[in-house]
Amino acid sequence: MPRLDLQPLTDPADERLADYVSLTDVALRSRHEPAKGLYIAESSTVLGRALAAGHRARSVLLAPRWVPDLEAMVAALPDDDEVVPVYVADEPVLEAITGFHVHRGALASMHRPPLAPVADVLAGARRVAVLEDIVDHTNVGAAFRSAAALGVDAVLVTPRCADPLYRRSVRVSMGTVFQVPWTRIDPWPGGLDELRAAGFVTAALALSDDSITLDDLVTENPERLALVLGAEGHGLKAATIASCDRVVRIPMAGGVDSLNVAAAAAVAFWATRA
Question: What value does the mean pLDDT take over residues 131-138?
């Protein structure tokens, strides 16, 4: 297991804390892009799932009462020679460092693993979700949580989709972004050809005159199915809809024409569960 190097801190300006300073969402987008090779895991639950998935911590920042939890998580990991700095500070100091109330008292700066090729993520998968240009991190995290809970085998995100490993996405997903295999599919919508070549029926969730109902899709029961969900507001691009094998709608009542994309994802995942 990694060795924890506990280091008490009292100064929010300590230079060792560069990964954590003023972590508003805007700061995360501008200072912690994927190319820098890190992401932030928030809460002991999320950190535990990240470590269990084989992700490596650069450092951990937490309140004293969470140290035993961290020690228990690390004790369950395979032995290695890695030393992980653990910065321990009281909760008011944590808030002064990060700029927000630290949920459940723990943050970790994590090494970002390389993305797998699409073919590797699709191997053995029967149901796949594709998230096209969803820019709201909360919706991305909620879609991942539903995918994990409802047995979706993999998630593909398009080049302009929000990063599933941003702090808010990870937190909303309850760490399930670490257990559902995912990668980026690029180019898009040209990547639909790769899905089709792998034997997937591609189903765009959209409002269209030639759409079928979700019940119709369930009755069809494709052996391999890729559900394609679009961005908030405008939904899927016209080119994406035209390139998919099916256009599918969720029947609505009460004068409502559509659901939030995360809610629509949950409904579609449940209806098409194996």
Answer: 95
- Residue 176 in contact with residue 144, Cβ under 8 Å? yes
Among the candidates 111, 131, 146, a domain finishes at 111
Lowest average pLDDT, out of 20-29, 77-86, 154-163, goes to 20-29
Domain boundary among 58, 87, 111: 111
Give the CA distances from residue 5 to residues 69, 70, 119, 215, 255, in Å, rounded to whole numbers and listed in that order: 15, 12, 39, 55, 58
Question: Average pLDDT for residues 6-24, to the nearest whole number?
Answer: 82
How many domains is the chain built from? 2
State the Cα–Cα distance between residues 131 and 228, nearest whole angstrom: 6
Closest CA to 271 of 193, 230, 212, 194: 212
CATH number of residue 50's parent domain: 3.30.1330.30
Residues 122 and 107 in one domain: no
Q: Are residues 138 and 79 in the same domain?
A: no
Residue 211: is its pLDDT beyond 80?
A: yes
pLDDT of residue 24: 52
Residues 103 and 122 both lie in one domain: no
Task: Let me know whether 144 and 253 are in one domain.
Answer: yes
pLDDT of residue 216: 97
Strands 212-213, 246-249: parallel, antiparallel or unpaired by DSSP?
A: parallel
C-alpha closest to that of 155 among 228, 62, 251:
228
- Strand arrangement of the beta sheet that strand 201-205 belongs to: 182-184, 154-157, 127-131, 225-229, 201-205, 246-249, 212-213
Domain range for 179 is 118-271
Q: Are 79 and 52 in contact (CB under 8 A)?
A: no
pLDDT on residue 188: 97
Count of Cβ atoms closer than 10 Å to residue 106 Cβ: 25
